[in-house]
Each structure stands twice: as C-alpha cells, then as structure tokens.
Write a structure and sequence with these properties.
Layout (H helix, E strand, L loop, with lengths): L1 E8 L3 H15 L1 E8 L1 H9 L6 E5 H10 L8 E13 L10 H10 L2 E5 L5 H12 L10 E4 L2 H10 L5 E6 H5 L4 E6 L7 E8 L6 H12 L4 H7 L5
Parallel strand pairs: 1-2, 1-3, 5-6, 5-7
Antiparallel strand pairs: 3-9, 4-7, 4-8, 4-9
Amino acid sequence: MLKLSILSGGAAAGVVKGLQQLFESSSACSVDATFSAVGAMREELLSGKPCDLIILTKAMIDGLIASGQVVKGSNRSLGIVRTGVAIKSGYKPPAIITKDNLFDAFQSAQGIYFPDPDKATAGIHVLSVLKQLGLDKEKSAALRIYPNGATAMAEMAKCQEDNLIGSTQVTEINITPGVELIGMLPKEFELATDYCLGICTNAKQPELAKIFADMLTGSDAANLRKKIGFEVA
C-alpha cells in the first residue's frame, strides 16, 4: 500500500486524524503522521525526514517556500487557532478575563502545563506571558513543560493533584479527554495563529498529498475544523 508521510504541528492533529480514515479508504493510501511542536516538525523536515505534506504556522510555511523545501503555490490555510486556558474537567474554573485574573490563576496553581517554550508556538507565547506577569521565576517549580500541547494536556488530565491549569492552542485542548477549555488569554496576551499546509518539494506522493490537502482545507471539512477550534473564514 502507498504511504503518505505528514509532519504537522499539534494544533492540526484533530483535523488530520478526523479525515484520515476517509482519505485512506478512498485513496488506498495509508497516512503516517507525526504531530508535535511546529519548530520540532520543521527541524525534522530540514534534517531529511520523509515528508509529503507539512502543516505549520503560515510564517514557517512561507519560509520553507522561500528556501525551497515547500512547493510554491501549494500553501493553503486551515484557519486561525487561538491560545486558550484549560483546567481538568469537573473542577471550578478560575476567572481569566483580565490580566489580574490570569495572574491570580497562575500564581495559585500547583502545576502550570504548557508545551515546549523553544519550539512550540503556544509554549513560546505562554512563557512570554508568565514573564510579563512576573511569574516565570516565582512559579518555576510549578512549570510542567512537555514537547507539545496535546501531551501537556493529557498529562494534566492524568495528574491527581488539585488546582492545575494549562495553556496551549485551543485545538489541542478540545481534542484531549479530561480537560476543558475555560477561555482565551486576556486581550493583551491574545495570540491567534494561522496554520497552513504545504506540499514538500521532495514529496514521494505529491498527487496524493494534493488530494489530502484538498480534503483538509475544503468546505466539506470546514465544520470539523470549526468544531475542533479553528476559526474558518
């Protein structure tokens, strides 16, 4: 059987997995997808890992087009994803509407879960927010960092402690059992990221990559993308 190799930021995992079975059954092609921080996925591509279709932030895809790793004109947006705040399901949500609310929520938390602050879009941003709040050093022992947002949320769901909080892309929160989205970061800390796909210049299955790209970004998949947390034009 043919194989389509995908490298993707974790924010798009829900839509890729949601359409994988339909694509595989209609194309007689299996999907081999890896999901993690966008920076890590970009590094995998540049290191030579086989990839037909890549999904990263728009800025990263644009950069890969400029450097020749992604086919010019193959880039398309899946939608905008915001960075949200989550807690374990069943717990009373803290207020996070204002900067002061967020400060109190983070300061009182036993554990603060978020993705890689070097390679993940949300992780870089969450650490920046903690620094702006003056909590990065004060709460250093409570910071619980994982390679990507989905893993961070899954680990928070499994933890038996009380008073836990996490922050990552809303699409990673929404697909993780045991956690719930309680809202977006306050307006002054807002982050909205455009996630785009592109077909790799070294793709072994460029035609199949285009077919799956059409499925992922098409109007038929718009409701799935919205349900997961993408803002679709």
